[in-house]
Amino acid sequence: MARLSIPSEANTAAWFFLAPALLLIGVFFFLPVAASLVLSVTDFDLYGIADPGNTRFVGLQNYSKLLQTPDFWAALRNTFYFAFVGGPLTIAVALGAALLLSSKLVRFKGFFRTIYFTPFVTTLVAVAIVWRYLYHTRYGLINYGLSYVGIGPIDWLGDPDWAMPAIILMAVWKSFGYNMLIFIAGLQSIPEELYDAAEIDGAGPIRRFFSITLPMLMPTLVFVSVVTMIGYFQLFAEPYVMTQGGPLRSTTSVVLLMYEEGFRWWRMGYAAAIAFVLFVVILIATLLQFRLQKERA
Amino acid sequence: MGREGEVVSELIPAFEKEHPGIKVEVQQIPWSAAHEKLLTAFVGDATPDIAMLGNTWVPEFVALDALEPLDSLVARSTDVVRSDYFPGIWSTNVVDGATYGIPWYVDTQVIFYRSDLLAKAGYSQMPSTWADWRQAMQKIKSQMSARQYPLLIPITEWRPPVILGVQAGSPLLRDNGRRGAFHEPQFRSAFDFYAGLFHDGLAPAFSASEISNLYQEFERGNIAMYISGPWQIGEFTNRLPKEMQDKWMTAPLPGMNGPGVSLAGGASLSLYRRSTHKREAWLLMEYLSRPDVQLRFYKLTGDLPARREAWRDTSLASNRYAQAFREQLDRVVPTPKVPEWEQIATKVFEYGEKAIRGRMTVEQALVALDRDVDALLEKRRWLMSRRKLATR
To answer: B140 near B118, Cβ under 8 Å?
Structure first.
């Protein structure tokens, strides 16, 4: 690798220009992160707010307690369920929609693009409330539709086995539009000649997809899947509004658990420990994704 | 807070007229944000002089040392007459022997029921013991279709199992709030009764968010009984059609072996320790505690007055739906006065839900509940042991 040598005076200038940004990042990012790391080894809580003397240094006890709590493992399982089922599903739907909208056969492309993108820019809380009505067991539109094809009423949000699929369905609908736009941009950058050449060589549409579209889209795919995963690991508002984490905690995500511990019960030390565990989980998942994509490339 | 915040502004002008030197500034905050806002105000050293406080929050704010004890002020006051308050309600404000709040309005749970459906099953009034209550529900159920239920208690609410527990004589917590007492026989018998209601199909396993329109279900006869608080009187009166109005009634809760207790709820007025206008603030608290002002407040909000004298007024004495509350209020008990209570209460319904849905047996659920509650109270135990050492 060639090393760039930079004259020292340019270095000083660079620092000078970077200083405002670094200062802001330091004060508003690294400082709070460091503070919550400190918080996570204490039992700071409501009593600690009353009198700082009521706070104990507990070392890694918050972490060990967390790993022994069934609620935490349930939350982690729910989060993984959401990310690993909802994530790929979102990407698949987004890619499918992007391919359809890039096809020469489709008309009114602008119209459909807007329609598909609209859910993404709609307020999540409002959307979640509407979906709660759609999912209603007795009066909901979804069960009404299903009854016509002979499927009995499903207790979407009240049955512990159906609640997470219901939330995933809504999340996919809500967020695939954004990924779709990125995929469309990626598709447009694939040179048309490649397809022409492949067609002359006798490659069918499926072969063309796997030999040209997918490899050429790989950088886009990496970007989309990393961003989607990181977002999905932070699942919060959907269950917070629709199910409050129930029934039977089947939709409690790690972030929801953290919120409850921190801002509902004011056990800030414990909540900070949850935040760090989530950070580690996301870090590992992201590194893993990069590794996988690199191997395939 | 909430509607009360809007209405109290209408009561202030008369007070300011009585005390020309005092200017009252009212700040309204929605109920949902109130708890957090008051805590942040405490941390930011910006607490108000007086605040309305849900009376289950009192122990928490006492633990923060945010509130002023009021006993000496009450002793000297002619407006705040302790003996005129419902004892169960008053005691929610007493923590370790000191009083930290004056009850402003009261709240408790009673049964709202379809009197016509009960009559059809052969009952002229609501039964008063668990056994009779259960039998009545079974009779009503036998006259209902499969998806109709005699009783609705959302399984995501902690009050019903807790009320039943207290009725069965459970202290809920033991050793002065150091540990849970849910695995003991009293709570166990209540929990069996509670879970049995669901197992026998007398109540549906619905969470609160699954009930789209309670009043419609009630009107259609899909539900015959519902446990709720005083604000529902207004809702039932306004939302049920006219021809339904003589088909519903309220009744005090049945108990294990006779009329049962319910929980002491409501809101109190509290004085903040850091207030610089304590004398003036107390004058306002006295003013708001007067029976005539309480009555005006009731007429504006529908919130039931804390003063028994106010209940003698015809507007309340003639409200037939309010009578069950009047009777119940003589039999109310506070929830355990520990700051962790609300979190413990959440655990109670979560384990209740597990037992109802068959994920755990009643035995397993109660053992796990006590284990969780003991873990939640660890900090409290530590603080109590340390405080004892300090005073020695």
So the answer is: yes
